[in-house]
Amino acid sequence: MTSGTAAGPRGLRHELFLHHSTDDLLEFVVALARDGAAAQQPTLLLLQPDTAQAVLHQVGPSPHLTIQQPPARPGGPALHVSAAAPTLSSYARVVHQEPAIPRPRWPRWRRCEAVLNLALRHHDTWVLCAYDRRTLTADMVADLQATRPLIGQHGRHQRNDRYQPPVSFLGQHNNDLPDPIEQTPPAVELVDPSPATARATVNWFAHQRLPTPEIDKLVFATHEAFTNALIHGRPPTVLRLWAQPDRVTVTVTDTGPGPTDPLVGLLPPDPRTDPGPGLGLWLINQLVDLTHRHHPDGYTVRLTTTHPDDHPSQPGRLQ
What we know:
The chain is α/β, with parallel strands linked by helices. It has helices at residues 22-38, 49-59, 77-88, 106-119, 138-146, 166-172, 195-206, 212-232, 278-287, and strands spanning 13-19, 43-46, 65-68, 93-97, 126-132, 150-153, 156-159, 188-191, 238-244, 247-254, 289-295, 298-306.
């Protein structure tokens, strides 16, 4: 594998590496770690414990290397952006052993990968994302290739001809499919309730199913989504809620067209301009799982909160 920095101008270098085995991954990470230590560049390795131990055994300790375990549960796009920015400011190189993303979470994850190119563009950091190819479908691979300007393959770091500008990519993937739970009768459906009634309803149904911090987040997110619909949408505004033992899903639908900016809610709004619905969606994205979709009947925002002890690969336990 070639040494030194990846091809391209200074600034964010966002690279994809697909590995097919543990040996592939180790060869890739060890080379980057050795190069970073030799160049005396602060290098952060976000690795699973077994991978970290193997890398440290081959590379040895270095004051220029920091090894940490990656987040156990990947967050939403806005939360991921907020967490990544301060991390990148301290390191010249970051290698992230990416988790296996459950299929239901993939639409949100691919948007996160695209928006990182904009949110972190001012950082002078080489970010290398290593995915296990065996956990990915062909569609997932295509999404990853479309969201990385650089790609590591055949021992080299190269420009990626399949990369798409973030706004273009996000514009093509701006709508999420309904959750399967939405095909079942909701526990409650309210037409044009007051914001206070909307908050109280969510709080009551979530009370026996979620811990207090998660309830507070969902209630606040519902308030923001409902207020957005009242201010920026068109009546009627319909709130639907589905309550499961460890998961609460809320949708807010109005008959307006919804926001057209594919970046809305993924980046903090410019404080110098009118944020429109962007500020509320940005705040919601920090708190709960947020999806949205435009459809012939209007615009729907879906908010989902799962008990923190529930495994992320069990969305709704409908199977």
